[in-house]
Design a protein that fits this description.
This protein is of the alpha/beta class and 885 residues long. Among the domains are: 231 residues, Serine Threonine Protein Phosphatase 5, Tetratricopeptide repeat, CATH 1.25.40.10; 47 residues; 100 residues, no CATH class. It has 39 helices and 16 strands. Strand 1 and strand 2 form a beta hairpin. Helix 3 runs antiparallel to helix 4. The longest helix is centred in the middle third of the chain and has 22 residues. It starts with 21 loop residues before the first helix and ends with a strand. It holds the Pfam family CHAT.
Length: 885
């Protein structure tokens, strides 16, 4: 809920106008935004003591303000009308004006705009001097709510000098905060920052705790508008903590956090937050204006989250509410989202071109920063309909935003410029615009410290990357397509995640999470109910994730660019690298080796994904004895997968090692099942650039080896004792010694690590995917705190090679957390496996490593050494080598 305070003591109600004891009653008005619940209780006490009209007017106004901002608007309107009646009986014009201002704002929030503005106008007419300045502030606030930004600026401009002259610190700070907020709505970030700074210095001299919380929230909004998402999330969380201490709902905070979450690529979370806030607001009979804004936020989140039908429903309702509330600025924004959602649902038409163009004109007239988005939308729809002249008209307008403003606005401009170039048949122009747009997004991503945010942010460049790939295919050779495929693939792995030097709160949260998760797991094994423990676990997960998202990124790096010539040189004559790009839903195979890049066309990505799921189901069955009859079915599925993924390129792989670089959506393919790879040395890498970095990674000195086995394995990690005998002098952590702090300490900077532990993959929250240790789960967030992860690491457990595909083509999971931290090679599993069959595979793998083989070579030989039954074969197929060590 909006935290702009809109009431207070009327300065013109002077001491001689009231009876003895008035001062304490008048203090209730500023107390509403210092200690809201205390002010409410004291106002109710005043009304219970048969007060004179003036005192009763103040008490009713306090209750009305409290109900207006944090409760039931119907109750608020009752008390504020009663307060006005009592002010008239007290014959205090300024008292009546003050109440009229509070009442006017309440009516506006109730959607009764005409009545509200009339009450505010009357308040201005009957007041003078200092009181009139406060009424003007309230009218400016109402104008801001209605989207009438120029009128808001005019009223606040008139009020600030008077408030300053009266040395009215509280109301001056409120006016400065409001002016800053209006500046932000108009895109004037620097002016807003100056006003926020001035307001905050004033708040520091007061005890207005709610106003102070609002100032923190406002700084969060300013950080977001300037492009600093981690700072915005941190400040909004701090504001929420402050509001929670005061016990008041924070619907405006919900709206603002939804904006930030969407910009961070967390649209599903934004939708959940908006819908939950709407439920609370409806339950208390709260402000109609805030409900409309929450519906707009929910519509945007649903559209970004790929749910256009939900977006259409939410946006259509928001449009109706905004129209009824006489809020054309907001209505135009809701109509933009409604049109975007209809296009996403496949309803593009000539009518929508006109609608989008009309919305663009209205937004431009309002000075809204979203105007270029609407012009881009109109141009995109027109292009799809073949209306090139209309498209050029709209895209030209949208392209102007590429030269200034926040990062996402500039990206909108460059996307428009790329589409203009494509329509004009200029492949070079498309690539130039895409390069500039992706450079903007690169710079934006460097401000994000959390790997999750950096990965999700890439979705904002997906259209530019796709346009560039198509243009490079049309106008260039396979080498250019490879370069652009690499330009936006697995970029989050290009640098390690930024870690705070020391964060006691985060470490404490991780320890508490581990303890609760271990207790919950023990209770499940004993058959005891765990709902309370699960609630605590989810709460701690939210706190941990929140703190990691607050981390700001490091300074931009040197701008490394993928060099296909260097990669071909490193591949040499024998090694082949197979990069799979996807254009228009079809797999394009880029086969690199012997100094050249060749392109082959394979099958449809959707069919390959479906086949991969069938294979996964088959491997799950084969993990259990008695499913031998499924083996031919799984092998046949492997042949179909090869046709879909490699196509004719499978005949040109040569006889040497192969590096497979799949798109994120194919991360679950068990590559060893493909006939052309089954008996070959091969490894998997998220990108060619990642493979090159892994290849150039130097092992740490000392050759330290660490062997870990966690609890609850069917075989009790039977390979670990044998490996301890093979690697004399290695560090062995088992039973109670296999606790997370000690395991992390030993893993840091080791040359080889083998972990036998139960693995769990969390599709809903991939960075909480875990390996079970004696004291609880070892999660991805723990690994990200390592200074250097093991040079080679072998994970002999289920699901450790599963990932969540996010952003444009990014992967979140355990393996991808290790690769940027110094790990050059990983062996991990992409499917459930038979624990007993894993033991001989691991022993054979380490035999090869002891002989000086790479992980990929040792894994190939280990598969060949397994017994020929279905269970052992399926186990071998489920493991892959990642990286280049």
């Amino acid at each position: 809920m909006r935290r702009k305070p809109v009431s207070g003591v009327s300065a013109a109600t002077t001491i001689h106008e009231v009876t003895a004891g008035s001062d304490s009653v008048l203090e209730l008005l500023p107390l509403v935004f210092a200690a809201p619940n205390e002010a409410l209780a004291r106002a109710e006490e005043v009304l219970g003591s048969d007060p004179p009209p003036l005192h009763a007017s103040v008490a009713h106004q306090v209750i009305g303000i409290w109900q207006r901002d944090w409760g039931d608007l119907r109750i608020a309107l009752h008390h504020l009308r009663r307060a006005r009646e009592l002010a008239a009986r007290a014959e205090s014009a300024d008292r009546e004006a003050d109440v009229l201002a509070a009442l006017g704002v309440a009516l506006v929030h109730a959607g009764r705009t005409r009545e509200g503005l009339k009450a505010l106008e009357r308040g201005v007419e009957v007041s003078s001097g200092h009181t009139r300045a406060r009424v003007l502030f309230r009218r400016a606030y109402a104008s801001w709510v209605l989207g009438r930004h120029r009128e808001a600026l005019e009223d606040v401009r008139r009020s600030i000098p008077v408030l300053r002259q009266a040395d009215d610190v509280i109301w001056t700070a409120r006016a400065l905060t409001l002016r800053a907020t209006v500046h932000l709505a108009l895109g004037a970030v620097e002016r807003a920052a100056a006003d926020f700074t001035a307001a905050e210095s004033l708040w520091d001299t007061t005890g207005q705790e709610h106003d102070k919380a609002d100032a923190v929230e406002s700084r969060g909004l300013a950080a977001f508008r300037s492009g600093d998402i981690p700072a915005a999330l941190r400040l909004l969380d701090e504001a929420e903590e402050r509001y929670a201490k005061l016990g008041t709902p924070t619907f405006m905070l919900n709206i603002r956090r939804c904006e930030v979450l969407m910009a961070a690529g967390l649209a599903p979370e934004a939708l959940a937050e908006a819908d939950a806030a709407i439920g609370v607001l409806d339950g208390i009979g709260g402000q109609s204006t805030r409900k409309a804004e929450l519906l707009l936020a929910a519509a945007r989140a649903a559209r970004l989250g790929g749910d256009p039908h939900t977006a259409i429903a939410r946006a259509a309702l928001a449009v109706r509410l905004f129209a009824g509330q006489r809020r054309p600025w907001w209505e135009a924004h809701a109509r933009l989202v409604l049109i975007e959602a209809r296009v996403a649902a496949g309803r593009a038409s000539g009518r929508l071109v006109a609608d989008a163009a009309g919305v663009a004109e209205r937004l431009a007239a309002f000075g809204a920063p979203a105007a270029p988005e609407a012009s881009l939308l109109a141009g995109r729809i027109a292009l799809d309909l073949g209306w090139t002249a209309d498209a050029e008209l709209h895209l030209k307008v949208a392209a102007r935003s590429r030269h200034g403003g926040p990062p996402l606005a500039r990206m909108t401009g460059w996307a428009a410029q790329a589409l203009r170039a494509r329509a004009a048949g200029s492949g070079r122009g498309v690539l130039e615009a895409c390069r500039h747009g992706l450079d903007v997004l690169d710079a934006h991503r460097t401000t994000l410290g959390a790997s999750e945010l950096r990965a999700r942010a890439t979705a904002q460049g997906a259209e530019l990357a796709a346009l560039a790939q198509r243009a490079s295919l049309d106008s260039g050779g396979p080498r250019r397509l490879l370069t652009w495929s690499e330009r936006w693939r697995a970029t989050v792995l290009s640098a390690p995640p930024t870690r705070p030097p020391a964060d006691p709160a985060l470490l404490s949260g991780l320890t508490a999470f581990r303890e609760i998760a271990a207790r919950a797991e023990a209770a499940r094994m004993d058959g005891r109910p765990v709902p309370a423990l699960e609630r605590d676990q989810r709460r701690l997960e939210r706190e941990i994730r929140s703190r990691t998202l607050h981390i700001s990124g490091a300074a931009p790096g040197g701008g490394h660019r993928f060099d296909p010539a260097l990669m071909l040189e490193r591949l040499g004559e024998d090694v082949r690298l197979v990069e799979l790009a996807v254009l228009d839903g079809r797999v394009q195979v880029l086969l690199c080796g012997q100094g050249r890049v060749r392109r082959f066309e394979a099958g449809l990505l959707a069919e390959a994904e479906t086949e991969a799921e069938h294979v996964q189901a088959g491997l799950r069955r084969l993990a259990h004895p008695g499913a031998e009859a499924r083996l031919p079915v799984v092998e046949a599925a492997g042949r179909r997968l090869e046709e879909l993924l490699f196509g004719p390129a499978a005949e040109h792989l040569g006889t040497g090692p192969v590096v497979v670089v799949p798109p994120g959506r194919l991360h679950r393919v068990p590559w060893a099942l493909l006939p052309s790879l089954r008996e070959r040395v091969f490894s998997v890498s998220p990108s060619a650039s990642s493979w090159l970095r892994s290849r150039d990674t130097v092992p740490p000195p000392g050759g330290r080896r660490v062997l870990v086995r966690g609890p609850g394995l069917a075989t009790e990690g039977a390979e670990v004792p044998e490996l301890a005998d093979r690697y004399g002098g290695s560090t062995v952590l088992e039973y109670e010694e296999a606790r997370v702090p000690r395991v992390l300490e030993e893993l840091d900077g080791s040359e080889l690590a083998h972990i036998a532990a139960h693995g769990t993959f969390r599709a809903d929250s991939p960075l909480f995917s875990a390996l079970r240790m004696a004291d609880g789960p070892l999660i991805v967030h723990d690994f990200e705190r390592l200074d250097r992860s093991p040079y080679r690491i072998i994970l002999s457990c289920c699901d450790t090679a599963r990932f969540a595909s996010v952003g444009a083509d990014e992967l979140l999971g355990l393996v991808t957390a290790l690769l940027p931290l110094g790990t050059a090679g990983v062996v991990a599993c992409s499917a459930p496996v038979n624990d007993a069959a894993v033991v001989p595979l691991m022993l054979a793998l380490h035999k090869g490593l002891s002989a000086g083989l790479s992980l990929a070579e040792a894994l190939r030989d280990a598969r060949a050494a397994l017994p020929g039954d279905a269970t052992h074969q399926a186990t071998g197929w489920a493991f892959s080598a990642f990286g280049a060590a």
